[in-house]
C-alpha cells in the first residue's frame, strides 16, 4: 500500500469510503499535484520539516507530518534533570548518541477515517519558521491535505509547539475545522491566575491561538469519543490536562502518545527521570509508566510527537523502562 503514488492512494480512498468522501479525496489529489509542481520550499539542513509518511490502519489512513527539527545543546538540562549529568551522558553514549547535543522533532498526525480528516496538534506555526520548524502546512499540502480539507483538529495539550499552528496570518489555519480539546487543560491555561506565574507565556499563547476558536470546540475528558474509532485517555503530568488517544479500525489499534515521552532513549528507558518541560514531574512519570505499560503489554504501535521521524514504533519492556523499537515494514503490509 505504501508504494502507491498519491493519485493511486487517493483513488483507493475514494473507492473505499464511497461517493460522500470522493470529492474531498479528488480535491486532495489535485491540490497535492499542484503543490508538487511548484516545488518544495527549501528548509534548513537540520530539519525534516515538510516530510510525511503514511500507512493504513484498518480502514483508516494515518499520515505523520514533520513540522521540523530543532537542535539543542546540553541534553542533561532537559532530560534527567534530577540525575548527575554523567548518568545522562552514559545513557546517551550507550545508545550511540552524542552526549552534548540532541535533536527534537515535532510530528503532528492526520487520521483519515472516511468521514473525518482529523489533525492531532498543529506544530510551532509562524513563530518557529525562522528556526526551521512551523512547516506543518507545507507538509500537509505535499501529503495531499490542503488546510481546507481538515474537518477536525484535536489538541493533546496546549504547549506552544502544539497550538501555535492553529492560527496563520491572524486567521484560523484550518478554516473548515471543528476542534476538540481537554476541558481540564483549557481551564488551566486560560485562567487569569497564570498571569505573573511561570505559566504566563503559555497563558498568553492560549488566549491568542486557542480561545478565539473555543466557540467551535468540544471540551472533553478521560474516555471521551472524539470521532468514530478515536478515544481520549487522560495522561496528566506533562501538562495539567495532557491527553493521549487510542485509534481503532477493523481490529487494528494505535496509540497517539503525544508528549508522554519526549525522548526515545532518555524518557523511555528511564521513565522516572525528570524532564524539564513536565509541569508535574511525579504525575508525568506515573503517566509514562501507565501509557507505555499499555503499549508494551498489548504490543501496540504508537506515534510519539517527539520520537525520531516518522515517529512510529513499539515499546518493549527493558529493565525499569522501555526500549523504543522503530516500525519497519510491519505497518505497510
TrEMBL record:
The UniProt record lists the Metallo-beta-lactamase domain at 105-305
Any idea what this protein is called?
MBL fold metallo-hydrolase
Which PANTHER family does the annotation name?
A: QUORUM-QUENCHING LACTONASE YTNP-RELATED, QUORUM-QUENCHING LACTONASE YTNP-RELATED-RELATED
**CDD domains in UniProt:** OPHC2-like_MBL-fold (cd07720)
Signal peptide (from-to): 1-21
- Pfam families per the record? Lactamase_B
Q: Does the keyword Mitochondrion apply?
A: no
Family recorded in the similarity comment = Belongs to the metallo-beta-lactamase superfamily.
Supply the alphabetized keyword list. Answer: Hydrolase, Metal-binding, Signal, Zinc
A Gene Ontology molecular function term for this protein is: hydrolase activity
Amino acid at each position: 500500500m505504501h508504494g502507491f503514488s498519491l493519485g493511486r492512494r487517493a483513488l483507493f480512498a475514494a473507492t473505499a469510503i464511497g461517493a460522500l468522501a470522493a470529492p474531498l479525496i479528488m480535491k486532495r489529489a489535485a491540490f497535492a499535484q499542484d503543490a508538487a509542481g511548484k516545488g518544495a520550499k527549501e528548509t534548513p539542513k537540520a530539519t525534516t520539516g515538510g516530510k510525511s509518511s503514511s500507512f493504513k490502519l484498518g480502514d483508516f489512513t494515518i499520515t505523520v507530518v514533520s513540522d521540523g527539527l530543532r537542535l539543542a545543546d546540553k541534553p542533561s538540562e532537559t532530560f534527567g534533570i534530577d540525575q548527575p549529568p554523567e548518568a545522562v551522558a552514559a545513557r546517551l553514549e550507550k545508545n550511540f548518541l552524542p552526549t552534548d547535543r540532541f535533536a527534537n522533532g515535532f510530528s503532528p498526525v492526520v487520521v483519515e477515517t472516511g468521514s473525518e480528516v482529523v489533525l492531532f496538534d498543529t506544530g510551532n506555526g509562524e513563530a518557529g519558521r525562522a528556526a526551521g520548524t512551523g512547516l506543518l502546512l507545507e507538509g500537509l499540502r505535499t501529503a495531499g491535505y490542503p488546510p481546507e480539507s481538515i474537518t477536525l483538529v484535536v489538541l493533546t495539550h496546549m504547549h506552544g509547539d502544539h497550538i501555535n499552528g492553529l492560527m496563520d496570518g491572524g486567521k484560523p489555519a484550518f478554516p473548515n475545522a471543528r476542534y476538540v480539546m481537554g476541558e481540564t487543560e483549557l481551564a488551566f491555561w486560560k485562567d487569569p491566575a497564570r498571569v505573573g506565574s511561570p505559566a504566563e507565556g503559555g497563558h498568553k499563547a492560549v488566549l491568542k491561538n486557542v480561545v478565539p476558536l473555543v466557540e467551535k470546540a468540544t471540551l472533553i475528558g478521560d474516555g471521551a469519543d472524539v470521532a468514530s474509532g478515536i478515544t481520549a485517555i487522560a495522561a496528566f503530568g506533562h501538562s495539567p490536562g495532557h491527553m493521549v488517544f487510542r485509534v481503532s479500525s477493523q481490529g487494528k489499534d494505535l496509540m497517539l502518545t503525544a508528549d508522554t515521552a519526549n525522548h526515545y532513549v532518555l524518557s523511555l528507558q528511564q521513565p522516572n527521570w525528570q524532564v524539564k518541560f513536565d509541569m508535574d514531574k511525579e504525575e508525568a512519570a506515573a503517566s509514562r509508566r501507565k501509557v507505555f505499560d499499555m503499549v508494551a503489554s498489548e504490543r501496540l504501535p504508537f506515534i510519539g510527537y517527539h520520537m525520531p521521524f516518522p515517529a512510529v514504533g513499539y515499546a518493549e519492556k527493558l529493565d525499569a523502562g522501555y526500549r523504543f523499537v522503530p516500525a519497519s515494514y510491519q505497518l505497510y503490509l
